[in-house]
Amino acid sequence: MLENKKDRKYFFQKKSVLILCALISTALWGSAFPCVKVGYRLWHIAPHDASSQMIFAGVRFILAGLMTLLAAHLIERGGIRMGLRQRHLPKILFLGVIQTALQYVFYYISMAHVTGVKGAILNGSSAFVCVLMARIYYKDREKLSGGRIPGCLLGLAGVVTVNLGKGSLGEGWSLLGEGFMILSVLMSALGSLISKEIAREIKPVTLCGGQLLSGGILLTAAGAVTGGQIHGSSIEFGGILLLFYMAFISAAAFSLWTILLTYHDMGKVTVYNFMIPVFGTILSAVFLGDDLWNPYILSSLPLVCAGIWLVNREPGQKKNRS
């Protein structure tokens, strides 16, 4: 199955495959919001212990990187050896710094200071940043026309609305919470752009595994140097299982996303980002007991989703009239 590059390209360029893989990726990423919150409790990590949070994240991504590289070796028949050259290593390390280390330093610290629902919705703004970055880099292919400008405004209105939950924007905002989630979003969008470019010369799954592993090592080292620690003797079995599931989330979602970015324009892939806050909000409400019926949450979620859809809608997506 998918014996050569041509077969893989034909398979992943199918619309049905794009939709299915994108939905799987966004569902996995959406489930990460409640998982991180539950993980802190099971691993006995305090909300303000940023160093231990980095170690927790780093171990997750080291495991994810090893899973992904093993998959590359098995699926791509020696993809680790054939897909990597010495000149590729600095590029993989750079992507690991941006897309794993920096993105998830901000993400994990943020998730200790915001609810799972709010984190999911704020994270949904990554689609807007992706569009703006793609417009800057791909000047000929990505244009801020049609519904993209009103879509950005609509989505940003949703991001502002969710921060009114405590009565005002000032009371509902903190640097370590909402501020760090926005910084995580910036790193995510930049990482998607870099990943799309590097994947032109490195096999996508191998690239994904390399950046997850290198980023995970950097996160773990940074957490250890700054005094973080994980007390393994006090960890419940459920915490171990959760960690492996979170590693699987990263391995599967990042691999699928990187493959999709390789075979499709950035806008066609990022349109599905609107499902991350949808999945994240629902799953956080189910597993964490977050307030799904808060009027600010109910108002902001459709704004964000509609805005992301408008931003990523193809300019020619109008019904042909005969």
Question: Would you spell out the secondary-structure blueprint of this structure?
Answer:
Elements: H1 5-12, H2 15-42, H3 50-75, H4 79-83, H5 89-111, H6 116-123, H7 126-137, H8 148-162, H9 175-198, H10 204-225, H11 237-263, H12 266-270, H13 275-288, H14 295-312
Helix pairs in contact: 2-6, 2-11, 2-13, 3-5, 3-10, 3-11, 5-9, 5-10, 6-9, 6-13, 7-9, 8-14, 10-11
Descriptive overview:
With 322 residues, the protein is mostly helical. Helix content is 73%, strand content 0%. It has 14 helices and no strands. Helix 3 crosses helix 5 and helix 6 packs antiparallel against helix 13. The longest helix has 28 residues. The radius of gyration is 19 Å and the shape is globular. 51% of the residues are buried. The C terminus is likely disordered.
- In percent, how much strand structure appears in the residues? under 5%
Strand tally: 0
Cα radius of gyration in angstroms:
19 Å
SSE topology string: HHHHHHHHHHHHHH
Largest sheet: none
Number of helices: 14
Q: Give the fraction of residues assigned to helices.
A: over 70%
Unreliably modeled segments: 317-322
Determine the mean pLDDT.
Answer: 80
